[in-house]
Amino acid sequence: MNLLESVDRCKLPKHIAIIMDGNGRWAKEQGQDRVYGHYEGVISVREIVNACAEIGIQYLTLYAFSTENWKRPKEEVDALMELLVNTIRKEIEELKKNNVKLHIIGDFKSLPAICQQELNEACEMTKTNTGLNLILALSYSSRQEIVEAARNIAIKIQQGELKPEDINFQIFENNLYTSAFPDPELMIRTSGEYRISNYLLYQMAYTELYFTDVHWPAFRKDNLYEALLNYQQRERRFGKTSEQIQKNLNQHV
Ligand code: FPP
Predict the structure, then answer these.
(1) 77: helix, coil or strand?
(2) Which fold would CATH assign to domain 10-140+184-234?
(3) Residue-by-residue pLDDT tens, the chain, 253 positions
(4) Pocket-forming residues, ligand 1, beta carbon under 6 Å
(5) Which residue in 1, 2, 17, 215 is deepest, having the highest Cβ count within 10 Å?
(6) In ligand 1, which atom is closest to the CA atom of 217?
């Protein structure tokens, strides 16, 4: 049985979040410069988006550029922004064909105008699609997102729309960039680093974390299926005991 056949379609996560790490190291291993790794990383993006759409994942969030990434050498930042624009342009027909709906989270206004325009158009062109929701985290910082949510709530209180005692998880979540999406059940980070790097800190309170040594440009469908199989072997307890979880499962059989 191949890996895909081993994946239990009834136990899929609704939402997978990925930190696509290792483009630079992979390129270096090939004797190339870092930007080559980002170009090859796009091939993995295409492959994993298609795999998620095919298998029936509903939400896929990709960490494509963090606010901290602005500190990289200007040539690399410019190359990444250009790659983003070109990729969106090139892939839009494929996204439409595959019923993928594109969303952006992050500090959208800090992106170059041409990126904003291209992304706005792509979101508009895919907005009626009903398949995979592809969420690109761009110029994204989870701490920034949380601070902004707190600020928005404070403004609503100041304007008399909300009372402090009304603040609960739901109100807080409604003010995050991700208000329209469920929390990820599975987070994959490639390239052997064991960090979450300012990514979906609030949303990942109960997310299962999966780390692999494979660099992002080498990450293929089978690597995704391996992550899914690993996820499916885990017992998600949310603070309860194993006995409680098993009892609940038996009652639903
Ligand atoms: C991390 O690898 C990767 C990034 C900062 C950029 C990710 C971008 C892509 C995969 C291509 C564009 C994406 C889309 C959605 C079109 P790194 O450069 O930090 O690698 P290193 O840790 O080995 O240096």
Answers:
(1) helix
(2) Undecaprenyl pyrophosphate synthetase (3.40.1180)
(3) 799 999 999 999 999 999 999 999 999 999 999 999 999 999 999 999 999 999 999 999 999 999 999 999 999 999 999 999 999 999 999 999 999 999 999 999 999 999 999 999 999 999 999 999 999 999 999 999 999 999 999 999 999 999 999 999 999 999 999 999 999 999 999 999 999 999 999 999 999 999 999 999 999 999 999 999 999 999 888 888 988 888 888 887 6
(4) 20-25, 38, 41-42, 45, 62, 64, 69, 83-84, 87, 136, 216
(5) 17
(6) 10
d(CA 7, CA 21): 24
Nearest ligand 1 atom to the CA of 37 is 18
211 beta partners: 189
Closest residue CA from atom 15 of ligand 1: 64
CA 54 to ligand 1 center in whole angstroms: 24
> How big is the chain, counted in residues?
253
Ramachandran bin of 202, using left for φ above 0, alpha for ψ from -120 to 50, beta for the remaining angles: alpha
For ligand 1, atom 13, name the residue with the nearest CA.
64
Say if CB 191 and CB 213 are below 8 A apart. yes
